[in-house]
């Protein structure tokens, strides 16, 4: 401390080494500065460290081992030639002063006043530690030859008992003697453990991202694996039962859709086919299927329409012929529900040709005209909404 403070000192002009000797004597100060302010009383200020745990008598607080204080060190006696020192310090939590002193006989510190020791001592003999030889025993060993002989025999018997333990300790120490190999083994183990920890952390992060978890995951144990192996998650119905139920629903379902809403082209076609099937089911068995049975009406050209009109106006055999203007004397339609010939479509020719057609002689009805009339007359059992096939392009005017 003094040497550190004496470096790079300022020497004043009136400093005389022969007269003053040193800068401390020139300034009339001690090399230890404030630590030596009570040196005239035999007290030196030192930095004292608490040797064990204690409780302060002033504030009843616990003071742990290793707490440091500025203590006043003073010599109070000797144990043979070993001096006994006393330390006085102030508690950092209150105004109480604690005094402790050395105990060279037991290699320990003793509390004189101001505190109580936390008892954590043990018997060195019970703990199989090396015991210190007492002073009376030392004197007896030096003066009594027989006691020294008996003590030597006891020491040799103790050595024989402890020899296997000592040899085992020596073998263990020799096995760990190679520092490089030991360091390499420790570093290798550390790398393996670090790699395993990184892999586990990556798995946990992947699981958290997959399950959207924000909680930390604890490491799994063997009990967790056994419990997870005992659990089974399955549905109430098997795959075969589900397939069987699905097939049953498909078989029992209607072919035609009954869902309300806008109909598509497929639904319209299905309804038409259904009606055609019902119409055919209602038709007589022996009758041949005609175009009218299928609900198809062919559009004729103007000449064909004119022939149909003339055939409708021509009276049938056995009925009187009535002119076109005299509609009052025309016989009524039969009550059996046959179609009237008067409702046949008129020709779409220009109005100037109407008179010419009226002046045209009407031929008696023949079998061809009756067949055409029967074909153009709608069948009473046909559907109200029938399909229409347009053949106007094929039969040009």
From TrEMBL:
Presence of the UniProt keyword Nuclease in the record: no
Location of region: Disordered: 1-26, 308-397
Transmembrane region(s): none
Coiled coil: 183-210
Keyword terms of this UniProt record: Coiled coil
InterPro entries per record: Saf4/Yju2
UniProt-listed Pfam families: Saf4_Yju2
Biased composition (Polar residues): 371-387
Region forming the signal peptide: none
Function recorded in the entry: May be involved in mRNA splicing.
Family membership: Belongs to the CWC16 family.
Protein name: Probable splicing factor YJU2B
Organism: Felis catus (Cat)
